[in-house]
Target: 3-methyl-2-oxobutanoate hydroxymethyltransferase
Amino acid sequence: MNITTFCPKKFLKQILPVHSKKYSSLPAYTKSKVTINKLTKKYNAGKKITMITAYDYPTGLAADNSQCDITLVGDSLATSILGLKSSNEITLDEMIHHSKAVGRATSRAMILTDLPFGSYNVSDKQAIKSAIRLHQEGFADSVKLEGGNDQMVGRAASIINCGGIPVCGHIGLTPQSVSILSGFRVQGKTLNSAKLLFEQALKLEQAGCFLLVLEAMPEIVGDAITKLVNIPTIGIGAGRYTSGQVLVLADILDINNTGSVPKFAKIYKNVGKTFLEGIEEYTSEVVSKTYPNPDKHIYPLSKENEEEIKSFLLKQYNIEF
Model:
């Protein structure tokens, strides 16, 4: 079965870039918008699909300029950026705020935004309303929800068919359900648990999802799901054979300078250390009075005007230079 079976042509053509070129603060359009059609062509050609998280204008701009296919505004920002203890603490309004900032920076990548915990769990109607808000207010091209049980499959189908918004499924380790999973544990390690993931993947595909995120599962399970479905799979700790990969920006750049990331992640650059070093160098120069440098950082004033101001200050306020 093909993705076109479930997604009307108007959604395959995808939404045009949200922003106009006339706003000079936005990046130049050097590449055309990533759409479901383009992702499908890449998937059919056997080319890997790339996804990275972003949380605001600077990270959204970096993601868009990097030529990553999909920018995920993930609820992981709750812990990695906002300092909350759990991703379940972030609200829909907060997700819209961050998605909107990423949207302002994005002209090329597809924006995929997480539906946060509590924004779609109650009913199909709630899920549709939340997805519409993320799309309408948060510039999301598509939304992601967690879980593959019948209720979540129904939510996905409702958002697609009634809200007209593309949906990405997410199975395996689903962080929003970490309490019921008894912690951040690898899923699909037994035959029965693997079979459950196979069934969930097929149901989400049948519901019309254009993409599946597979998190924290043995490589053979991620590979099997990728072979079972006819839509792209994006792995995060699901092995080498998924259709693409996603990682958390805060992990790959070690933004918080922890030196620690999940087993499946890799630190490519230590941006957190660079932040710290830059701030420490600045602080040191202020204390030592080497910043501001009079030859580089001071606005010039003509000698005549300077003397006039000095004379006024001396006469009026008895301030002498």
The mean pLDDT is 92. Strands lie at 49-53, 70-73, 110-114, 142-144, 167-172, 211-215, 233-236, 244-247. The chain has two domains: 34-252, 273-315.
